[in-house]
């Protein structure tokens, strides 16, 4: 395949190590060119996504960040939680980055730099309860993605980029790594899949931003053979074929649909980032991520899916959970664009879920701030209609 051979030729170095490519997380330069061309041409539905982005206050070039020395997620009995400051600023940096790349107006990059530098000169730790690991995972991969967009901006000084890398490593990666290795000394199957997945996404993203192939490979290896529920064979653990469609029951299907859908809001970005580095996790084990996405989308669209009783060290779930069924997360454009638009695979339930989310979002996926003020609306970066749709 042409794509793979370009990657192999360009990035294998003499010593057998490989170099990470930039920009190479959620978006490549070709992606930014497509987004800009679609917006310049006023083409639907990308233009709807663009209008959603520019109307969101997080993408304003007057956005004022609120960096904190210590971020708390989960009430530890003493310190009030303040992690909303982090997720708002992370989403602003990402939104500003997209707006800069598409408009070419440096005032948006300058506003993003202010956020990135504000945090890298202030943040020293993430604490709270065990939920700190969720903050380190979710906002770690999102922050690295915002920074990856701004990385090529001449107005972001090299020393400031280095300080940002240090923050990503010391504050975020250190928690990601410890979590995946130790899981707070809990049973290996205690933490639901999304806990591992967000920490894997963060480790992968920080490996890319920091040009550290050890971190990057640790995340890829975990996806394939990790011991916790983020290993793909544990996240999507039971396959069925119904009417010719392969459906994959998810580790969180019997918990609730808010978390079951979150797993795909994390698997999508994880696979997209790896793909842009030449590793195809989407295709891994005959498109296992797609099987899970089709199952989860089908159930959340209101249709029946088969279910097998799930048991771990803590619970037995004998029926699929209908809690939060129909959850609206801007997460499906990425998955559908890859499997359907790029690879030409039938992904009909994912596609219908994408369309449902878009119709509930004014015609295109929004971003942080468009889905309420709480953390769930910031679990994913969104803007997928603008950023990922190919056809
Ligand atoms: C963040 O949490 C710490 C500890 O509770 C607190 O001192 C600080 O003021 C908080 N910041 C905000 C903006 O709430
Ligand atoms: C990459 O990250 C690992 C894990 O933190 C660290 O041990 C190693 O020194 C880093 N490599 C480089 C080149 O910075
Ligand atoms: C949701 O699931 C519960 C438990 O299986 C069931 O009793 C209830 O009828 C379901 N509700 C709906 C609206 O399907």
From TrEMBL:
Taxonomy, superkingdom: Eukaryota
Keywords for this protein: Lyase, Signal
Signal peptide feature range: 1-19
A single MF term (Gene Ontology): lyase activity
GO CC annotation: periplasmic space
The Alginate lyase domain, residue ranges: 42-299
Protein name: Alginate lyase domain-containing protein
């Amino acid at each position: 395949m042409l794509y793979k051979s370009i990657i192999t030729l360009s990035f294998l170095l003499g010593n057998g190590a490989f170099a990470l490519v930039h920009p190479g997380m959620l978006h490549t330069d070709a992606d930014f060119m497509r987004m800009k061309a679609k917006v310049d041409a006023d083409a639907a539905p990308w233009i709807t996504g663009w209008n959603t982005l520019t109307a969101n206050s997080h993408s304003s070039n007057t956005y004022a960040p609120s960096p904190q020395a210590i971020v708390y997620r989960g009430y530890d009995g003493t310190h009030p939680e303040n992690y909303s400051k982090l997720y708002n600023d992370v989403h602003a940096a990402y939104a500003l980055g997209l707006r800069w790349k598409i408009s070419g107006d440096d005032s948006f990059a300058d506003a993003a730099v202010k956020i990135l530098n504000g945090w890298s000169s202030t943040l020293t730790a993430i604490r709270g309860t065990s939920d700190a690991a969720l903050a380190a995972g979710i906002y770690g991969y999102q922050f690295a993605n915002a920074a990856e967009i701004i990385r090529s901006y001449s107005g972001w000084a090299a020393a400031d980029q280095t300080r940002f890398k240090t923050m990503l490593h010391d504050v975020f990666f250190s928690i990601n790594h410890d979590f995946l290795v130790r899981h707070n000394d809990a049973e290996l199957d205690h933490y639901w899949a999304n806990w591992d997945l967000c920490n894997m996404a963060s480790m992968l993203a920080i490996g890319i931003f920091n040009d550290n192939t050890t971190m990057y490979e640790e995340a890829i290896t975990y996806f394939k053979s990790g011991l916790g529920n983020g290993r793909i064979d544990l996240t999507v653990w039971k396959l069925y074929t119904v009417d010719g469609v392969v459906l994959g029951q998810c580790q969180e299907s019997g918990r609730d649909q808010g978390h079951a859908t979150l797993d795909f809001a994390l698997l999508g970005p994880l696979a997209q980032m790896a793909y842009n580095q030449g590793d195809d996790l989407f295709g891994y084990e005959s498109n296992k991520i797609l099987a899970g996405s089709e199952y989860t989308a089908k159930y959340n669209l209101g249709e029946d899916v088969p279910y097998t009783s799930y048991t771990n060290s803590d619970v037995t779930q004998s029926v699929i959970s209908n809690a939060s069924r129909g959850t609206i997360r801007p997460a499906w454009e990425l998955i559908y664009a890859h499997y359907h638009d790029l690879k030409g695979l039938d992904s009909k339930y994912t596609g219908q879920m994408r369309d449902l989310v878009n119709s509930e979002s004014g015609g295109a996926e929004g971003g942080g701030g468009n889905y309420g003020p709480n953390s769930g609306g910031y679990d994913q970066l969104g803007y997928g209609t603008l950023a990922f749709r190919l056809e």
